[in-house]
Amino acid sequence: MKGRIFNYDGPFFGFLNTFANIIILSVVTLVCCIPVITFGPAVRALYVVSLKMVRNEESYVVKDFFKSFKSNFLQNVILGLLVLLALGFFGGGLYSMIMIGSAFHIIIKIGFGMGALIVIATILWIFPMQSRFKNPIKQTVKLSFWLAVTKFPKTILMLIIWLFIPACVVFISGNFVPLVFLAELGTAAYFCAEVYDDLFRELEDKINGNEE
Question: Domain range holding 155?
Answer without folding.
Answer: 2-211
